[in-house]
Amino acid sequence: MDTDEIVSRCIGFDWDDGNLRKNWEKHGVSAAECEQVFFNHPLVTSPDIGHSSYEARFYTLGKSDSGKHLFIVFTVRNNLIRIISARGMNSKERGVYKHHEKNT
What we know:
The protein is α+β, with helices and mostly antiparallel strands. The protein is 35% helix and 30% strand.
């Protein structure tokens, strides 16, 4: 199953209070912004193989409704997206995302 299919099968979000606080306090990213990314296009998602020893992790590049470009690390548990980390994209990630924007 490819990553787009994994995400499309999800029915909601599962939040950990610690990750909610960390994403806001450290990176200024709210839960709402994270969730918005999964409904906006393009959504560029790939497996995070280097951090998947315990469970499959993924990262995605996307935009919030306000246009904030975000890099999100997540896993899927019981068809729910569980966000582990979220921050603004760095310049390299933004370049990858812009490439996908032009080609969709």
